[in-house]
Amino acid sequence: MGSVKLAPSILSADFARLGEQVREASEAGADYIHVDVMDGRFVPNLTIGPLVVAAIRPHTSLPLDVHLMVVEPEHLIRDFVSAGADKVTVHQEAVPELRRAVHLIKELGATAGVAISPDTPASTLDEVIADLDLVLVMTVNPGYGGQPFISSVLPKVRRVREMIEAGGFTAELEVDGGIKKDNVATLVEAGADVIVAGSAVFNDRSSVAVALGELRKGIGA
Ligand code: DX5
Ligand code: ZN
């Protein structure tokens, strides 16, 4: 499992020096920069818009992995891709016509993901999984960083991995929420190949480089 990717979520970064924090994560060997977009409607919290994505774009050459926790994301996809998003993920629960959103993301030249919240079954992906570049299985309820990992989601991570293998699909399997150095191995064993981590990477206890190193050690890679 040496190919597991780490995607630090800037939600827990110091927003007053976001460019610097993104550079720190990039220099420390992150694989993607995860950007949590929240609209105050799909989730209560309000975070980042396309302007902020454009502002961090010059600070890294890594793919910007934009997680849209918004209602009607179709209206925002173009602006985020223009701002520099490489990967755009919409929530299954927020989009009545998933296929249309996925194709719009791809037409604009980005890679397309669909996220499912903890209570959403894997079967909701059946009709679109073949077209996806990424499936994001949330391991907390979307909305905030620093929440505890919901371990009852683990069987669903395994199920999505099986769906991808059984169909011969190419989607990456990303997991997001409450992931730390001591539970990251469980997720990798369940089949995750992209690990999002916010508060485990950006915190007052250690540098971004040390925190990313600990996560890698936790995976055993
Ligand atoms: C939650 C976000 C996550 C969050 C992860 O809604 O999607 O990306 O930032 O933060 P931690 O790793 O602190 O749970
Ligand atoms: Zn996220």
Which short descriptors sum up this protein?
7 helices; 8-stranded parallel β-sheet; alpha/beta; 8 strands; binds D-xylitol-5-phosphate; 221 residues; binds zinc ion
Structural commentary:
β2, α2 (50-56) and β3 form a beta-alpha-beta unit. The model has no long low-confidence stretch (mean pLDDT 97). This protein has an eight-stranded parallel sheet with strand order 1-8-7-6-5-4-3-2. The protein has helices at 18-27, 50-56, 74-83, 98-107, 154-167, 184-190, 208-219, and strands at residues 5-8, 33-38, 64-69, 87-91, 111-116, 134-138, 172-176, 194-197. 32% of the residues lie in helices and 19% in strands. The protein is built from seven helices and eight strands. Zinc ion (ZN) is lined by residues 9, 34, 36, 67, 176, 196. Residues 9, 34, 36, 67, 176, 196 line the site of zinc ion.
Order of helices and strands: EHEHEHEHEEHEHEH
State the end-to-end CA separation.
Answer: 7 Å
- Strand arrangement, major sheet: 1-8-7-6-5-4-3-2
Largest beta-sheet characterization = 8 strands, parallel
Ligands present: D-xylitol-5-phosphate, zinc ion
Q: How much β-strand is present in the residues?
A: 15-25%
- The helix content, as a percent range, equals 25-40%
Cα-atom Rg, whole angstroms? 16 Å
Structural class label: alpha/beta
Which blocks of ≥5 consecutive residues have pLDDT under 50?
none
Helical region count?
7
Tally of strands: 8
